[in-house]
Design a protein that fits this description.
This protein is mainly β and about 600 residues long. The chain has six helices and 37 strands. The protein has one domain (about 1-590): TonB-dependent receptor, beta-barrel domain (Maltoporin, Chain A), CATH 2.40.170. The chain has a 22-stranded antiparallel beta barrel. Strands 2-1-5 form a three-stranded antiparallel β-sheet, with no helix packed on it.
Length: about 600
């Protein structure tokens, strides 16, 4: 909050290319070549073999674990909105094309209507034909955000957000026989000749999201330096609609374990929608630019609907919300409490989210804690379909998450962290592709260390390593060790008018018992005999920048076949063979 209050002072002394995300100011990179080759990729996220297909996170974060699983669930996450403030309109455009007719286009336009009002509009689009039969994907993310800050003599602020996401994927059910790939008996250059389980099946996920938030200062006692105190009334209205559609044909009948209805053709839909409203009071007191105390108390009313086949469930929730922030010099503490008032269970839903940061010279210490008592999601309680069906009465599950981290900023940025997580009564998808609950504890402890150099004229070096201990009920099914290393050599060319670099990075995760993927539910589920990993994945790249235009050429998996053909993202889904990506990124300043 202190960052938000001091943003106008900060920006007047800076160039006009900044945005705020999660309360942190970031500079839009218009100079360096950093990470341009990472566009559209995440190091420890695997998919079903082509860009935009369902994903599984090998290093799950707390947000994924809160939703019972850390694969992409039936309901897509909302777009991560950023708040821009630019004195000159900007257009940031990126385009990547790769093997398998992969195309990724990203567009963002942002400009300030006035000093206090900004809007942003953008599009993120992925199309990929894939290498195997029935493997194409299409992903569309359209977003719009407009906000006004300190309007009406500094008393009124608003934020309007809109987001539409559609993620469609043809699902081939994996290879019929993995050994034909592992043994490379056909010496295939064209992998689409391999037989797959489903030749005509797909899923489509959709999300509509809109939110209007407002605040008005009932008391506004500030001096010329914006120090003083305020009492604000705040509210928001939010609507979202989520849907999933799965379809196959009679050609796929032999793949399924069971057929539960008279029809051999599966055409299933499910949707979830919610309407929320919030009203609260917030008190802010600020002594100087580095000191802030803020408290907010309010209530949220939400109406939720879940519909699927003959299931029709409605639930009304009333939440009590308490939010607090404290900033003073190098110390920052904030917390949030959500408490469900009208709970039909004997024990109430709640979640407590606490964060603390401390800055001292070149050191930064972070700590956080998250405690919750949650009801299972509605789609885990009931489902009726042609190939799977369930009706569950699960207990609540509890999360206990603690994190401590330390970072040093110098010639080398070094960071170390420990994440400790207990999940009581975890829910997972089991061998028959339906949800189960383990009445016990699943534990995940992750220790991480990372380092990267900076301000080096010629070398970019970075590396990270993570060790994940899994105790109790092993519902996570993650590799113990994850590692990544990157190196790039930078130089000037064309009479020093173009900055260029050539480099490589390598990703590795140890052997682990992986989850299988079920096309019918769109979930990763626990089965047996699915060991994967212990295989390095490398990228070679060349990148260059001329003014605000950046180009790169990447060859991924250049060592294909050197260590055999046991490279799989998931059982039945081989990783890509050697493939190329070409990309361009251009920041236009009007």
């Amino acid at each position: 909050m202190a960052l938000l209050l001091s943003l106008s002072i900060f920006l007047r002394a800076q160039k006009p290319f900044y945005y705020i995300e999660n309360g942190i100011i970031h500079q839009i990179d218009t100079v360096t070549l950093d990470h341009v080759e990472d566009y559209g990729q995440e190091a420890f996220v695997i998919n079903l073999g082509n860009h935009g297909s369902p994903e599984f996170r090998l290093k799950p974060e707390l947000n994924e674990l809160i939703t019972n699983d850390y694969s992409v669930l039936s309901y897509l996450p909302v777009h991560q909105f950023r708040r821009y403030k630019v004195y000159t309109p900007i257009v940031d455009a990126k385009y990547v094309i790769g093997t398998g007719q992969e195309q990724h286009f990203n567009f963002l336009h942002s400009q300030n209507v006035s000093e206090k009002v900004n809007y942003s509009i953008g599009l993120d689009k992925i199309n990929s034909k894939g290498v195997y039969q029935n493997q194409s994907t299409s992903f569309t993310d359209i977003f719009f955000n407009i906000y006004g800050d300190k309007l009406s003599k500094g008393r009124y602020s608003f934020d309007l957000q809109f987001n539409y996401i559609s993620a469609a994927a043809s699902l081939n059910g994996g290879l019929i026989d993995d050994s034909t790939f592992i043994n490379d008996t056909l010496d295939l250059q064209n992998r689409e000749l391999l037989d797959v389980n489903l030749t005509n099946a797909y899923q489509e996920l959709g999300k509509w999201f809109g939110q209007l938030g407002q605040s008005y200062a009932l008391m506004h006692q500030l001096d010329s330096n914006s120090n003083g105190q305020k009492l604000l009334v705040s509210n928001y209205f939010q609507y979202q609609f989520n849907s999933r559609h799965y379809y196959d044909s009679v050609l796929n009948t032999a793949f399924y374990d069971r057929i539960l209805s008279d029809s051999n053709v599966t055409d299933e839909e499910m949707n979830f929608q919610s309407l929320k409203g919030f009203l609260g009071l917030r008190f802010e007191k600020r002594k100087d630019v580095s000191s802030l105390l803020s408290m907010e108390l309010g209530s949220e009313l939400s109406q939720n609907w879940y519909r699927q086949d003959d299931l029709d469930t409605t639930r009304t929730d009333v939440l009590l919300k308490l939010i607090g922030d404290y900033h003073n010099s190098g110390l920052s503490v904030n917390g949030k409490l959500d408490y469900l008032i009208n709970d039909s269970y004997s024990n109430k839903d709640y979640n407590v989210d606490l964060h603390a940061k401390y800055f001292f010279r070149n050191f930064r210490l972070n700590a956080s804690a998250y405690l919750s008592n949650e009801r299972p999601q509605l789609d885990l309680l009931g489902y009726s379909g042609n190939h799977v069906s369930w009706s569950n009465s699960f207990e609540k599950y509890q999360l206990q998450h603690f994190m401590v981290a330390a970072k040093y900023d110098g010639r080398w940025d070094v960071e170390a962290s420990v994440n400790y997580l207990d999940v009581h009564n975890p829910i997972y998808f089991g061998y028959d592709k339906t949800p189960y609950q383990a009445l016990g504890v699943a534990q995940l402890i992750r220790t991480s260390v990372s380092a990267s150099n900076k301000n080096n004229d010629h070398w970019d070096l970075s590396g990270e390593i993570h060790y994940q201990y899994q105790g109790g009920y092993n519902v996570f099914r993650l590799p113990d060790v994850l590692a990544k290393a990157s190196v790039a050599y930078k130089f000037k060319t064309f009479k020093k008018k173009m900055t260029a670099a050539i480099g490589a990075d390598i990703n590795y995760f140890s052997k682990y018992e992986a989850k299988y993927f079920d096309p019918v539910t769109g979930q990763f589920y626990i089965y047996s005999n699915g060991e994967l990993g212990n295989y390095p994945y490398a990228n070679l790249f060349i990148k260059s920048r001329v003014q605000r235009a950046t180009f790169f050429l990447m060859m991924s998996h250049p060592h294909q076949g050197l260590f055999g053909y046991r490279y799989f993202y998931a059982p039945g889904y081989p990783a890509n063979d050697r493939f190329f990506r070409i990309g361009v990124s251009w920041l236009f300043v009007n």
